[in-house]
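Appendix B, Record 12. Input sequence as logged:
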Amino acid sequence: MKILNLYAGVGGNRKLWGDEHEITAIEYNENIAEVYKDLFPNDKMIIGDAHEYLLNHYHEFDFIWSSPPCPTHSDIRRCGVHAGRYEAKYPDMKLYEEIILLKNFAKKETKWVVENVKPYYKYLITPSAIIQRHPFWTNFVVSNFDKKDDRNHNEIKGGGDVYGFNIKNTNITDKRKSLRNLVNPELGLHLLKESQSKEFSFFRGGNGS
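Logged structural output:
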């Protein structure tokens, strides 16, 4: 199966996918990309703009995972603005651009996932599922995933062992951010398996809310 892993980070969602698939990963940060390549040497890593790559290559893959940047959508941003710690920013609409693109133009047989954080505003497009406070937009049915997010937040702050990723001795500048951005590998595997076993499509025909 040909898989596109966008905004790949160090590969939390990808960790348990195995090596039987042909995986292309897109990551714009060179230091993060180097860590990903060391962990998953069989994957094709492209250092570049994931949003632009999706637009040009969405039709080439059987399964697409996208995790667009989330800070402008997170309630942490809103709380931080009110507390005087952050500046207000427009929500980055690339998130919804990707959902709309995939919903309307992806091939019927291509399964896709767009993941983000629970926003401070009402969803502009209703997600297919909310798991561990993360909304997921998909074109397949997602069944329950009841495992808790059991990351050690002290380890996150120290760049230590989170879901088996230890990036203390890497060149990644913001190690805390990289570990906070990790998707639970078991959840990543769960969604990949769901995409292969479900045929019903939510978002065909323009009836998403």
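DSSP finds seven helices and seven strands in the chain.
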